[in-house]
Write a structure and sequence with these properties.
The chain has a domain of about 60 residues. About 50% of the residues lie in helices and about 0% in strands. The chain is built from seven helices and no strands. Helix 4 packs across helix 6. It is extended.
Length: about 120
């Protein structure tokens, strides 16, 4: 077990670097002020309805997950998502499509996430 604070810091930095990746150049926001105050965004309340994606896009996104990544607040292990991606693609597509079309999000919260001190409560 490491006790030197600098060594611990170095190990933590290496761990974080191994599980996070840099966004693609075309998806980086260079100037957040300009991006979020764009007339295109502020004048078009239906902008999210114009986002197009498919079940295949969801499968491709799941395939980019690292199998040893920590589960999200829903508690679903990444390896389950990867192994079940074909079965999950349609339901996930329908959930995301409905959310984008209506501007609402699911309020489902499992009992496990309520009891998990590491998960953030959603209001």
């Amino acid at each position: 077990m490491k006790e030197d604070p600098e060594e611990i810091c170095k190990l933590l930095a290496e761990q974080y670097q191994s599980v996070f990746s840099e966004p693609e150049e075309t998806k980086k926001i260079i100037d957040p002020g300009t991006f979020f105050n764009s007339p295109q965004i502020s004048e078009d309340p239906t902008m999210l309805k114009n986002i197009e994606f498919s079940e295949q896009d969801i499968i491709a996104a799941i395939e980019e997950l690292k199998p040893n990544s920590a589960p999200g607040p829903d508690g679903i292990p990444t390896n389950v998502l990867i192994k079940c991606k074909d079965a999950l693609a349609r339901p996930l597509y329908l959930l995301w499509r409905h959310s984008l079309d209506t501007g609402t999000a699911s309020t489902y919260r499992s009992k496990e996430s309520d009891n998990n001190p590491n998960s953030q409560r959603r209001s």
